[in-house]
Amino acid sequence: MSAATENGPLRWGVVGPGRIGRTVMSELLLLPDAELTAVCSRSRDRAAAFAADLEVPEGRQRPEPVTVTSVEELLPLVDVVYVATPHLQHPEAVLPALQAGVPVLCEKAVAARMSDAQRMVDAAREHRTLFMEAMWMRFNPLHRLLVDELLEGIGPIRRITADLSVHRDHDPDDRLWDPARGGGTLLDLGVYPVSFVQWLLGTPLSVAVHGERAHDVDASATLLLRYPEGNAAQVSCSFRAVGTNGATVVGERGRVVIDPMMYKPHRIEVDRAGEHSQVHVAVPGGELGGRGYTPMLMHFQELVRSGATESPVMPLDDTLAVMRILTDALDELGVSYPSSAG
């Protein structure tokens, strides 16, 4: 972090000016102590158009970021790098940034293969540089309340079910159906329920998967995760179905139901000791508003300013554990991806 920004706004650079990058950087503009300084894309025209498409909060001036075509050009200009390229391209941006000592927030799933995830985590630890997977679900106010308070009332967790399924017709031009760009339902949708289960139960003893491989990607998958003492979790994701998109956590003395949208809930229902209650939150993004990314962005900025090298909410070992589950499931379904660069 530069001396100029030690007490001023953090300078962010984004690699990959696509839809998710535009959404998250629009939410960054809700933070008064952050600014979008640079945009990196192989297409300078696409990078230049990025700022014009941002949703700018009332009272905030539209940013005019520098446009660059390489990560090497980007790094001297920023304090933080946000990587929003397709999964297979993550190492190309993440590794140079970590080697240069620049903190990185990387989109989930953090990689398309376990080997890439391990390389990036190893680099973060070797260079003692902050690296965090952008699993914004873990920072949702209701999820924080669930973990900090509500689960205690239902006793030890015995079973979890979680689903995220959205019907999506096959389109060969769609990244989500393209194996060369890390397509498939597990990396796009399944990462949410898998991360949710791993957050609450940890690393499973074993993973069994049943699903459909179509057009060289996983079109649907159901995972059974086995844990000690007979505890288990079932995770499902699909491009072939319209799912419940909720989650249920069953404990010895009660249960918690997150429905709908398990990754950005507005409501959680709690049943325990014969009592039923509901907890609501009006704005998933917390006090600053937005679609739900601001709590994660605020957390990451606090880590950068404090000099931390790892998040206690989304630690690196959790990122690796989630990636291991996803990789095992993809291997069992016979889905493979090209070797990544970086």
From TrEMBL:
Keywords: Oxidoreductase. Pfam families: GFO_IDH_MocA, GFO_IDH_MocA_C3. SUPFAM superfamilies: Glyceraldehyde-3-phosphate dehydrogenase-like, C-terminal domain, NAD(P)-binding Rossmann-fold domains. Signal peptide: none annotated. InterPro entries: Gfo/Idh/MocA-like_OxRdtase_N (IPR000683), Gfo/Idh/MocA_domain (IPR050984), GFO_IDH_MocA-like_dom (IPR055170), NAD(P)-bd_dom_sf (IPR036291). One of its GO terms (molecular function) is nucleotide binding. Residues 154-256 form the GFO/IDH/MocA-like oxidoreductase domain. Residues 10-132 form the Gfo/Idh/MocA-like oxidoreductase N-terminal domain. Belongs to the Gfo/Idh/MocA family. This is Gfo/Idh/MocA family oxidoreductase.
